[in-house]
UniProtKB/TrEMBL annotation:
Sequence ranges assigned to domain Peptidase M20 dimerisation in this UniProt record: 190-276
GO molecular function terms attached to this record: metal ion binding; N-acetyldiaminopimelate deacetylase activity
Record's cofactor remark: The Mn(2+) ion enhances activity.
Natural source organism: Rhizobium loti (Mesorhizobium loti)
UniProt-recorded name of the protein: Amidohydrolase
Statement: the UniProt record of this protein carries the keyword Membrane: no
Domain of life, per lineage: Bacteria
Lineage, top ranks: Bacteria, Pseudomonadati, Pseudomonadota, Alphaproteobacteria, Hyphomicrobiales
GO biological process: diaminopimelate biosynthetic process
Gene3D superfamilies tied to this protein: 3.30.70.360, Zn peptidases
Amino acid sequence: MTSFEIFRDLQREATEWRRYLHQYPELDYRLPNTAQFVAEKLASFGINHIETGIAETGIVAIVQGKGGDGPTVGFRADMDALPIVEASGKPWASKMPGRMHACGHDGHTAMLLGAAKHFARTRNFKGSVALIFQPAEEVELPSGGLKMVLEGIMDRFNISQVFGMHNRPGVEIGTFAICDGPIMASQDDFDIVVKGRGGHAASPSRTIDPVVVAAQIIMGLQTLVSRKTDPMDSLVISVTKLKAAEAYNVIPDNVEIAGTVRTLSSELRDFAEREVFASAQGIARGFAADIEFTYRRSVPVTFNHAKETNFAATAARNVVGAASVNDKVRMSMGAEDFAYMLEARPGAMIFLGNGSSPSLHNPAYDFDDEALVYGIGFWISLVEIVLPV
């Protein structure tokens, strides 16, 4: 087992980088300061092949090993923050109003930078490492992962395998979790406009009340999960937006509903798209109303390939020991746009414990700097496995 203590010097630097990035979060593709910071650090390590401006503010840097020619393996970190007002109370809290790193992308970026410094000074591998710094993981279509793939990074840099890592609150620091096959769900979104006939709230009999219809649709959609799918399958349908009249005494003409669908199989994605529409339309027509329906397929299932999952699990064990690696973790219904890279090339996503921190996307969340050393160690161990001299 490789002792993580040898990476403590990198952790100290990475902590400084991480806290700087945390104070100056940027959103979606608009990452000029973050991208400049990353590019300058990579150059300071002696990395010469750095390409910027991919998917607007993304970066791919290539480190050639001293072991000679070999494959190129991609390691990905996301860089963007979220439009959330921070409430962590930390000395390094966001200085940008209404923005914060509430998902730990500052930590992901700092860990890959720490590993990059080690790769650049040792180059003890055969082949090349492609360091992928991605914008816009948190946005919907087109997300940064999809855009980088569409701009051809896999072919352009001859990437043969690709790996990602994401921190996970509730998992002990110094532990990892992974599984082969589906590890995170697909994400689809829908909008429904319920079209009725408005009027005065004191005379509901003269209206076709779209508020009542919308309420029935919201409840009806839940039966798609509880009564129309196998209980052993994973499907989540959540209505998250509801917009009606703004006055107490008005029944509106229309009501807007929106929500999200998560699943772990393409068959259930097809089912959900078909049945959400059919259920909503059927309920509406039962009340003499109608609907407008829009369904958008967003992130696909994050699917870990078996060989690469074994590589990642082995690398994690080399850093923290077998007892601290769960290689059969329960699948998550969250979504991750690293899925697009895993569709383009074989690879795997692994979870890194962030301890008992608040959940992701919570105003009180913060990446735990004690986790940095394990993430840096993972990347370094993974290179030793997939690109041995």
